[in-house]
Design goal:
CATH superfamily of the largest domain: Electron Transport, Fmn-binding Protein, Chain A
CATH architecture of the largest domain: Roll
CATH class of the largest domain: Mainly Beta
Bound molecules: flavin mononucleotide
Oligomer: single chain
CATH topology of the largest domain: Pnp Oxidase, Chain A
Order of helices and strands: EHEEEEHEHHEEEHHEHEHEHEHE
Number of helices: 10
Helix content: 10-25%
Strand content: 25-35%
Low-confidence stretches: 179-192
Number of strands: 14
Largest sheet: 8 strands, antiparallel
Radius of gyration: 22 Å
Shape: elongated
Distance between the termini: 33 Å
Mean pLDDT: 90
Length: 290
């Protein structure tokens, strides 16, 4: 079972665990997990992001470059020394860490990279920006410490640069193996599952409001809320063809509420000032139009 969370409330816990290592999971040729100690939760381009730093030599880097997706698994209780040793010192290039550390994989919601039940705080991400660090721009003392190229006894691996991967946060939750999921009130601040039925009432009572279904065309055709226009998330810019006034009240929905919550910062960036995600049609109780 997955319990949606307010990720911002876990920022302190994430920082605390980063010092000991959290897990960066990827799923390219196979599932793999590596410990990371550098990273940050934040906001970029009005979007919740998690940034990680991965050295050139890591197997994880080749997987990240292939798929552009990662999921973070963060301990909330006791740490498992076997998981920490395997994921923090062995390479997926040489071994299957899932079997070696007996990782209990949990299917993802929004990307294709599983979480790990033993380290239950889970953050699913999609890479939206990457850049290799420029060694020449790093303060000399830090460079000498972390990239001691040419120092006797230092392997190439200890000196290779990190690439910064900025991942858009797609979903965040805690895995509870034996507890039912809790409801809406405690859901993530970024992806709070809104009451779509109350949202539709508010849409109807708001003069001049526009209702946008941000699902794909085939999903829209299979049944949508009467009065909605279809502008898929990937083509949101098209909204400017039909909504001239940037202060127009805009209500968005999708299937589960994830895509519609992503549509809010995207529409804000285009310039719309009055946008609300009202959740997912899967919870809608009224009649549908085809
Ligand atoms: C606590 C801890 C933190 C680490 N942090 C990072 C990190 O932020 N970036 C990095 O590239 N490697 C980091 N490492 C090293 C990798 O976890 C390690 O080299 C791992 O074996 C790489 O696995 P892979 O080759 O399967 O990707 C860390 C290791 C530990 C133990």
């Amino acid at each position: 079972m997955k319990e949606k969370i307010k990720l911002a409330e876990y920022a302190g816990k994430i920082n605390e665990e980063l010092r000991r290592g959290i897990l960066l999971n990827t799923n390219g040729d196979k599932f793999n997990s590596m410990s990371i100690g550098w990273g940050a939760l934040g906001i970029l381009w009005n979007t919740p992001v998690f940034t990680v730093y991965v050295r050139e030599s890591r197997y994880t880097k080749s997987q990240l470059d292939k798929t552009g997706e990662f999921t973070l698994s963060i301990p909330l209780g006791e740490r498992d020394p076997v998981i920490d040793r395997v994921c923090g010192s062995l390479s997926g290039r040489d071994i299957d860490k899932t079997a070696e550390a007996k990782l209990a994989l949990e299917p993802p919601n929004a990307n294709s990279v599983p979480g790990i039940a033993q380290y239950p705080l889970t953050v699913e991400c999609r890479v939206i920006y990457r850049e290799q660090q420029k060694l020449g721009l790093i303060p000399p003392a830090m460079r000498a410490r972390f990239y001691p190229e040419g120092t006797p006894g230092c392997s190439a691996e200890q000196a290779d640069p990190h690439t910064m991967y900025i991942g858009e946060v797609l979903d965040a939750y805690v895995i509870h193996p034996d507890r039912p999921a809790v409801k809406e009130e405690s859901m993530n601040v970024f992806f709070r599952k809104n009451d779509i039925n109350a949202g539709i009432v508010e849409f109807k009572n708001t003069e001049g409001a526009v209702l946008i279904d941000v699902r794909d065309e085939d999903e829209f055709a299979s049944g949508h809320i009467p009065g909605a226009v279809n502008i898929p998330l990937s083509r949101l810019r098209e909204v400017e063809d039909s909504v001239d006034d940037y202060d127009t009240p805009i209500f968005t929905y999708c299937l589960s509420g994830v895509r519609s919550s992503r549509s809010v910062p995207a529409l804000n960036m285009i310039g719309y000032t009055n946008v609300r995600s009202i959740g997912g049609i899967e919870d809608y109780k009224g009649p549908l139009e085809r």
